[in-house]
């Protein structure tokens, strides 16, 4: 590998999905549903592509989608976003994150990031010239406190990146944790990038609180969303950046040189979905919660110990507590090769002092797939 690429390894999601494809394994690794997604939204995308939504849409996104996004967050999270000056449509949350780091990180800036860390953050921060400062979270609670964050702050700290709900932990940040982070951002004059792609996927009656809604955060938070996660259409790559006008100005400048825009038929179809949600935003998490419970119950029956999951598509297994004494990566490689089931070793989402005891499983799957996965995991053990 050329040294220039040293900070850009192949992501664990591609590695494990590649193995699953090659070996014909059940894929409980990378997070995507095996359900085709809401039919009316897919039909709308097909209709729009056949009826003229095929040329460059406006750089910041179709007005109808930006209006729908602002209205959606008003309805669901009480946010008051001006669609003209505070909403940018991107090609997935991944592009939103890239644009945010390119716009906001100057060479030498320090960026506080929590481990386990979503795979895209560190390579993007480093390519922008930033220096990640890692706060290590660990199971079973994955919580932080003031001392853990303050230990990573310096004069050079510019940004904090929070993912809430947290992939891969499946946790939803508590009100206290959010308040603490907001306080620190205000005290130190930091900008927060809050990756909230899982905001609609929360269970057990919990509600999502956007970091942007906390005192002092409205002007200093960049909120990242993903239609792929909202509608279970993960391949669509339609994302959103929401921020105060002064920040949005810079974010949209970065966005214009990354992708400039996002396929117009997909934007129009997402606008349609947001404007006509019906029961989707209650039915989708309810169905996923049922799948979570099915996977958890099946694994427990087989003697695995699972951690609580309050959001995302993911359930974590505590391997040593389940009698698996191999490190997570060794077990996951053996499970895919010998038992035909792919999972994500959570150690891959740490850069320093990895937690090597946790295996992440995606439960956004049909019952038959989950049941077969449980049986195969039991065989691997
Ligand atoms: N952030 C997190 C925490 C995610 O889990 C994902 C998708 N798995 C993304 C960002 C990327 O979202 P998108 O597919 O919209 O680019
Ligand atoms: N977000 C997905 C996951 O956590 C993966 C997305 C990707 O492959 N980059 O499984």
Automatic annotation (TrEMBL):
The keyword Transferase is assigned to this record: yes
UniProt KW keywords: Aminotransferase, Pyridoxal phosphate, Transferase
Domain spans labelled Aminotransferase class I/classII large: 26-377
Biological source species: Phenylobacterium conjunctum
Entries under InterPro entries matching the protein: Aminotransferase_I/II_large, Kynurenine-oxoglutarate_AT, PyrdxlP-dep_Trfase, PyrdxlP-dep_Trfase_major, PyrdxlP-dep_Trfase_small
Molecular function terms, GO-annotated: transaminase activity
Protein's UniProt name: Aminotransferase
Cofactor: pyridoxal 5'-phosphate
Highest taxon listed in the record's lineage: Bacteria
Transcription in keyword set: no
């Amino acid at each position: 590998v050329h040294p220039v690429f040293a900070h850009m390894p192949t992501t664990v999601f591609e590695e494990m999905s590649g193995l699953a494809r090659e070996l014909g394994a059940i894929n409980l690794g990378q997070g995507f549903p095996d359900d085709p997604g809401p039919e009316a939204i897919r039909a709308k995308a097909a209709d729009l592509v056949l009826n003229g939504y095929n040329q460059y849409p406006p750089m910041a996104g179709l007005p109808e989608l930006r209006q729908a996004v602002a209205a959606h967050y008003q309805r669901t999270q009480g946010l008051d976003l001006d669609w003209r000056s505070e909403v940018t449509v991107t090609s997935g949350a991944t592009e939103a994150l890239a644009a945010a780091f390119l716009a906001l990180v100057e060479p030498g800036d320090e960026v506080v990031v929590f481990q386990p860390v979503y795979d895209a953050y560190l390579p993007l921060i480093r390519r922008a010239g930033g220096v990640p400062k890692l706060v290590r979270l660990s199971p079973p609670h994955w919580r932080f406190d003031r001392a853990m964050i303050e230990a990573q702050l310096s004069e050079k700290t510019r940004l904090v990146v929070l993912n809430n709900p947290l992939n891969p932990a499946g946790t939803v940040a508590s009100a206290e944790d959010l308040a603490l982070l907001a306080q620190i951002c205000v005290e130190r004059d930091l900008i927060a990038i809050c990756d909230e792609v899982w905001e609609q996927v929360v269970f057990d009656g919990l509600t999502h609180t956007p970091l942007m809604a906390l005192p002092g955060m409205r002007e200093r938070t960049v909120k990242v969303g993903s239609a792929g996660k909202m509608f279970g259409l993960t391949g669509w790559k339609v994302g959103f950046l929401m921020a105060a006008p002064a920040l949005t100005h810079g974010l949209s400048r970065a966005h214009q040189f990354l992708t400039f825009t996002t396929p117009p038929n997909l934007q129009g179809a997402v606008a349609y979905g947001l404007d006509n949600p019906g029961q989707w935003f209650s039915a989708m998490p309810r169905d996923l919660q049922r799948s979570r419970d099915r996977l958890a119950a099946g694994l427990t029956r087989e003697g695995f110990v699972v951690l609580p999951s309050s959001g995302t598509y993911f359930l974590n297994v505590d391997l040593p507590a389940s009698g698996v004494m191999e490190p997570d990566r060794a077990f996951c490689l053996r499970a895919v090769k010998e038992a035909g089931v792919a999972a994500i070793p959570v150690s891959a989402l740490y850069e320093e002092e990895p937690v090597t005891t946790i295996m992440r499983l995606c439960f956004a799957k049909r019952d038959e797939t989950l049941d077969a996965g449980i049986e195969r995991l039991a065989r691997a053990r």
